[in-house]
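Running this now, will post back.
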Amino acid sequence: MNYVLLIVFLCLVSCGGPTKTGQMARQKAHARMDLVNADLASQQARQQFEVGQLDAAITTIDVAIDRYPEKSEYHQLRGRILLEQHKLDDARSAFETASTLLPAAAEPHYLLGVLHQRWGDDETALRSYTSACQNDPSHAQFFLAKAETLTALNRDDEAIELLVGKHQFQHQASIPALLGQIYLRTGKATLAAQHFADSRSLGNDDPILFADLAIAEFRAGLYAQCLMTLRELELITEDGLTTLQRRVRGKCLAATGQLVQGRDICLSVTRETPQDADAWIDLGFIAWKMGDYRRLGTCGNEISKLAPSVLEGPLFIGKAAQHAGNSVLAEDSLALAVSLSENDELAGWILANARQTNRKNATVLQEAPNTPTKTAEKAIEEPILGLVEGSEPLVIVPQN
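Update: finished.
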């Protein structure tokens, strides 16, 4: 009897312990529970991150990683939080871990590119963006980041080849906008204007685009179109046009024959910003074109005080003096303009015409001291005033 009880007891003990299959099932159940809890923690961390609770977010995502360290998304979120906290070394480590855990993921590479650009390492950023594009070629943001980084590295030809090549982003408004910026920066204003206009037709109504388009149209000599663009820009910006944009409007008005309106705008700019030599230069050229030599001389004097190394100051003074019959001041001022010119052809032209004009004036002044000959007037005026119609080399619109 005792023997039978012992056997029954042993059977009960053996049946009560977990089997190998039971142990595995229990482990899987624990793993599922860890993943569920980790996902909940990750969601909470994301919400904290989105509302700017960065310290709380990093604590919460660390809980998720402790529960389930194999999930790439947790490390990626941790890296984003650290990136916002400007803890760049730790962020890089998190992104690299995310990429290692899920090699086919694109976003960790993209975020590494963003991080390296913050470090000023565009070459490494470009490699990261290229990897992101390879892992997810359908993502426009990765594509644009690669193109923008190529331009940052002054590899404009490669950027243009990438942007105009065959890809699925042809109808993205940001593509022609970026092409326009490249062409504007490299001095191809007409192409820039065309691409900015294409971006606008694709629905890009960003005021920055309109501002870039206006500058491109001005530099391309498309003055009437530039005026229309500035009018549209004025309607969509709360603060109206900037001082630079008003200067462009004034010069476009002058270039399209609306001299009085253009002069009035440029005159108001000089009153608002009297220390801006460029504003006086704009006003001076319009005054010259209108034959307002007294104002031209005033502009020349202001420019010479504000920016002594700029040739327009003595050029304007010389022209005004020439018209007043002051040949000595005219010759001295124009000679100074020549010495300040960085354009050899322009310098030679000013010098030759100054000498020619002074020789002709020397004869005429014996009879009419304040009346230069029409021939002399035309010789000094026509080539220079032809330059007023554009932005180079004398009427320059700065980049910012």
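The chain has 21 helices and no strands. More later if anyone needs it.
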